[in-house]
Amino acid sequence: MSQQLIPGYTYGTHEVPRSPVTIEEFELLKQAVLFTDEDARHLQLSEKVLEDQVEAVLDVWYGFIGSLPQLLYYFTRPDGQADGAYLAAVRKRFAQWIRDTARANYDQSWLDYQYEIGLRHHRTGKNTTDHVNSVANIGFRYLFPLIFPVTITLKPFLAKKGHSAEVVEKMQQAWVKSLLLQITLWSQPYIKPGDF
Amino acid sequence: MSQQLIPGYTYGTHEVPRSPVTIEEFELLKQAVLFTDEDARHLQLSEKVLEDQVEAVLDVWYGFIGSLPQLLYYFTRPDGQADGAYLAAVRKRFAQWIRDTARANYDQSWLDYQYEIGLRHHRTGKNTTDHVNSVANIGFRYLFPLIFPVTITLKPFLAKKGHSAEVVEKMQQAWVKSLLLQITLWSQPYIKPGDF
């Protein structure tokens, strides 16, 4: 699916607000998580590895979210039922997010879009992109814990194209580092002024 | 060093406020990070493995913090110099934190103490325990990224007592899950009311 055909995917457009975190501040964060050019290269390798597996990865992740009521809750309507159209709309952007994470072109446009993603998790912007009537805010508490199930279930997919155990491990570690950085950026709208 | 001799270590005492997160809510969080009894057992195994290596682990972690000015900053005095006495006081509790994390007795007392640890990182309680004149607040942005360097540098220590690569991996993964949970709990004072 080309990017133009993904509803609500505004990466690189003028609709995306400027990130409150500068590129210089992001470089300092990368140092703290030990993110290097080698990680960017392993992410880019993972892009090729995952290219034809994106939907299969999403099946696993959606299966996990669907298996835990405390997570599926954030996709429910006022009647308590999961909103299938909402789940489907998010899934298209989720697929593109896999590609964008793996592409590892973490420049100003990417940084700005991480802020936008954070706003869409937070009550500031949740539900508006897909015009849905769902829970107002994704609880901060569930943002970071998902890094573990997401990256541990990614590993078998990373291993499917014949790379050595060491290279698979490095691809997975680069994903973990990237997610620690990304979700830190997504958290910004949740944090009290001055405490970020 | 016995727990009674660690200044400011108030775990299990009446000085520790009640956690705003209930045990039931914490159980839901554990599900989201895939934390099971098997993880608790691997953490407890790591307690024995790390027992005589705690100071060596802290040497590595303090070396990392000392190598990045953006991290060491949180231990500096108004004149910009690192406060050695502050670093030393925190280090004693840091050693006990390794033991407490590995003990994996994540009950109400432990939950309450995670809240206390969060308050001590946040401007609510930073500097007061050690009566120091330092930076007012640890920036939220640096809390989660440190999970990677902390757990990757722990791995060689976990491997030093002859356990199989698989068991070492499981011990390390249990540490990663525990840290995702703990730092989520520590974040509570940073989050806007209602958004946690």
SSE blueprint:
The structure is a homodimer of 196-residue chains.
Chain A: H1 23-32, H2 37-50, H3 54-67, H4 69-72, H5 84-103, H6 108-121, H7 147-158, H8 165-186
Helix pairs in contact in A: 2-5, 2-8, 3-7, 6-8, 7-8
Domain Globin-sensor (chains A, B): 24-193
GO molecular function (chains A, B): heme binding; oxygen binding
Organism (chains A, B): Ktedonosporobacter rubrisoli
Largest interface: A-B, 39 and 39 residues
Q: Indicate the CATH class of chain A.
A: Mainly Alpha
SSE string of chain A, helices as H and strands as E: HHHHHHHH
CATH topology description of chain A: Globin-like
Overall mean pLDDT score of chain A?
97
Shape of chain A: globular
> What assembly state would you assign to the polypeptide chains in this entry?
homodimer
Structural class of chain A: mainly alpha
Strand fraction of chain A equals under 5%
Tell me how many strands of chain A there are.
0
Q: What CATH architecture of chain A would you give?
A: Orthogonal Bundle
The major pleated sheet of chain A works out as: none
Distance between the termini of chain A: 36 Å
CATH superfamily (homologous) name of chain A = Globins
Helix content estimate of chain A? 55-70%
Q: What is the total number of structural domains of chain A?
A: 1
Give Rg of chain A in angstroms. 16 Å
Low-confidence stretches of chain A: none
Number of continuous helical runs of chain A: 8
